[in-house]
Amino acid sequence: MRDAPLLPGHRDAHQKLLIVDFGSQVTQLIARRLREIDVYCEIHPFNAVDEAFLDDFAPRAVILSGGPASVPDAGSPRPPMKVFDLGVPVLGICYGQQVMMQMLGGEVVRTPGSAEFGRAWIEPTEERLELMNGWFQGHREQVWMSHGDHVSRLAPGFRPFATSQGAPFAVTADPERRFFAVQFHPEVHHTPGGATFLANFCALAGFTGDWTMGAYREQAVRAIRDQVGDGRVICALSGGVDSSVAAVLLHEAVGDQLTCVFVDHGLLRKDEAGEVVGMFRDHMNLPVVHADESEMFLTALEGVSDPERKRKIIGGLFIEVFEKHAHQIGGAEFLAQGTLYPDVIESVSFSGGPSVTIKSHHNVGGLPEKMGMTLVEPLRELFKDEVRALGRELGLPDRFIGRHPFPGPGLAIRCPGEITREKLDILREADAIFIDQIRRHGLYDEIWQAFVAILPVRTVGVMGDGRTYDFACALRAVTSVDGMTADYYPFDHDFLGETATRIINNVRGINRVTYDITSKPPGTIEWE
Length: 528
Ligand code: XMP
Description:
Elements: E1 16-21, H1 27-36, E2 40-45, H2 51-57, E3 61-64, E4 90-93, H3 95-103, E5 107-110, E6 116-124, E7 141-147, E8 149-153, E9 159-164, E10 171-174, E11 179-182, H4 194-204, H5 213-228, E12 233-236, H6 241-254, E13 258-264, H7 272-283, E14 288-292, H8 294-300, H9 307-328, E15 334-336, H10 341-344, E16 346-348, E17 356-358, H11 367-371, E18 374-376, H12 384-393, H13 398-401, H14 421-440, E19 449-463, E20 466-479, E21 487-488, H15 493-506, E22 510-515
Parallel strand pairs: 1-2, 1-3, 3-4, 4-11, 12-13, 12-15, 13-14, 15-18, 20-22
Antiparallel strand pairs: 5-8, 6-7, 6-9, 9-10, 10-11, 16-17, 19-20, 20-21
Helix pairs in contact: 5-6, 5-12, 6-12, 14-15
The structure holds xanthosine-5'-monophosphate.
Residues 362-363, 405, 407-409, 449, 483, 520, 524-526 line the site of xanthosine-5'-monophosphate.
């Protein structure tokens, strides 16, 4: 999987920067900062970067990332020496800086008490470095440090250009060979001048910023045509941003060789099937099969309360249904998926030696192997915000592009306990009101995800002169950057009161509304 080209032939069309990953928590941010300035880069784990790889990849510049290992330790990770013989600029960050210095003839030591974590200030030495253009408007610059070891002797050719209290060699360089080494992390927001620093590095390496969505669209279309030829492509369209953008891009590339299957499992939100099918089939003219299989899914889920069983049943049936509809339209050689770059990047694991963990994409997991189809993944190179930019470039309306994520198992995991049609109907109505409230108050785009969960309890209430005995529900709204961690959204009390009143007055079957204020961790975003 690792060496599969992102899009065959595609990456050669750009000036490329290679990020060698030593396992830092923030390596992905280096790529983010570079993509923001239209520089194409790829992250590869150190143990996958050998001489042959370097020849093949032919980077215009190399960045060595930070990482948790310690250079003085025997067996600590190294890039191949060839990185320094390519004749291209190299930037070492934190661990990358130390490993570079050690390999080029300097020395790294672990001195207890000299560790620096968090905010630090660096001051320039007398000689100016081009990479620090735009810095030191005041006499010092804030940076973010996270290191235990430090460089004690510079490699031949290196000179210091900035110092901090804990790191006399905060910025060093061998400007003649275009080797740069920083002890801090320029890629994080807590280094306010970091983006400028990285931009200066790219400019020095001759990057012209040729990675734009317009250019990507053209090249991706060409690459898809090359891969698919006159074969048929099938795509599971969920209405989420990723599958939607992938489908529209594929349609632009191969037209009616593409068929999209929208599987309606009966666990969708209010009006969702109509909106998605209407949008893609009627408005964008994509060939979409609307597979209404809700009876089958809901029947299979009857009496099932266990969250994992629910997921397994839904996942299994999804594959069955998809296969059935693929068969009905005469089959296809290619299966399109909206896999994104963060799903593809391998993270380096140091716990069990140089093992490599691949984060896999779960949405239609198991399908390609089972159906003997080849994958087409036209978004494999993109981050989420780039997918949104591409969607806009392809003419998808903003309302679609900015949609909150919605999980594959749908409302099933927002209905703890047994799923019934009655509960799903109640949930759909309450959810629609909550989302409408959020839109009316102009909060939709500030929130990562918002929904209602219907609780498996009935509680007593009083409405008019009568006693009620109805379901309670929980509102859930979180902020997040990637869904990995999240915090609850701090609605004001008026908003919550107004929303609770609207739900109770308008949704028969709910007489109590609560607000979930759990962060993730320890909670998860979904209730199951
Ligand atoms: P949790 O609940 O794990 O969710 O905090 C994190 C993000 O992932 C979404 N999610 C899923 N998406 N299939 C999906 O496509 C799933 O099975 C699934 N489970 C959770 C969830 O909505 C949130 O955005």
